[in-house]
Amino acid sequence: MSGSEVERRExxxxxxxxxxxxxxxxxxxxxxxxxxxSGVRRAFGGLVAVDVERLEIERGTITALIGPNGAGKxxxxxxxxxxxxPSRGTWEFDGRSAKRLRSYQVAQAxxxxxxxxxxxxxxxxVLDNMLIGATGQLGERMWAGLLPWxxxxxxxxxxxxxxGLLERxxxxxxxxxxxxxxxxxxxxxxxxxxxxxxxxxxxxLDEPMAGVNPALKxxxxxxxxxxxxxxxxVLFVEHDMDMVHEIADWAVVMAAGRVITxxxxxxxxxDSRVIDAYLGAHHDGAAR
Length: 288
Ligand SMILES: Nc1ncnc2c1ncn2[C@@H]1O[C@H](COP(=O)(O)OP(=O)(O)OP(=O)(O)O)[C@@H](O)[C@H]1O
Ligand SMILES: [Mg+2]
Description:
Layout: H1 5-19, E1 33-44, E2 47-58, E3 62-66, H2 73-80, E4 88-93, E5 96-97, H3 103-109, E6 111-113, H4 126-133, H5 140-144, H6 147-151, H7 155-168, H8 184-195, E7 202-206, H9 214-229, E8 233-237, H10 241-247, E9 250-255, E10 258-263, H11 265-269, H12 272-281
The structure holds adenosine-5'-triphosphate and magnesium ion.
Residues 44, 47, 49, 67, 69-75, 116 line the site of adenosine-5'-triphosphate.
């Protein structure tokens, strides 16, 4: 077992302290950002999906990225992790410009993400999915035949790491099953475990709890807290405010491509801009 309750509380307290003097304003500077983005914009034809003037993510904290459907959260993730290219903008990860890096280079630089729709490679075993994580690349067709050659040099070390992570995420007994046989929740766990193969300093999780049953949700929340305890920075997208309150040190709110506010979960839940954004997004739908 990694980490005691005491260590967990200390990591949490350190994150709270780091953010204690940060004002709840969009784009506000943080004491020690691991990721900072400026003027990041992405348009699809006439639709501006992302238009983030400034965003800093504090090192060692759990930050939630929230906002109504279509706010631009996934697009921002795609841009920052090299899965999409911006119309303009720059960003730095851990002091180095990351805007020209390809997705696998971003992963190798220490920033790894998971996907809203899990990308577990269904026709590969759970263990092979983990070993692909060690390369920082995804793509079933591309890797199906190449995998054995790729990991040969590092096989023993990668295998040991993979098995350790599968143990930690309660997937060890599934290691030889096809990933396609796992439940939705188990695939989310597999994706998180796979993201850790590269020993990242930052993990970005796009709706890690979506479609996961309540029991597994608790375990996912624990795993996320554990990442902070180990010194990692976590940025995660989530719609359920209870989850945000339970684990996030800070929350960033997007609407229509922009960061409209940020602050502690308590601060943003009483912010009228947030309420307006959600009401606005459901304008033509039923009131809720
Ligand atoms: N490849 C694309 N081509 C055209 N439009 C896109 C593309 N990707 C996203 N969009 C549009 O950009 C906007 C932002 O989408 P995005 O998926 O980033 O939102 P989101 O905040 O992740 O929403 P959700 O909470 O539903 O996942 C939406 O209007 C979406 O339709
Ligand atoms: Mg999304």
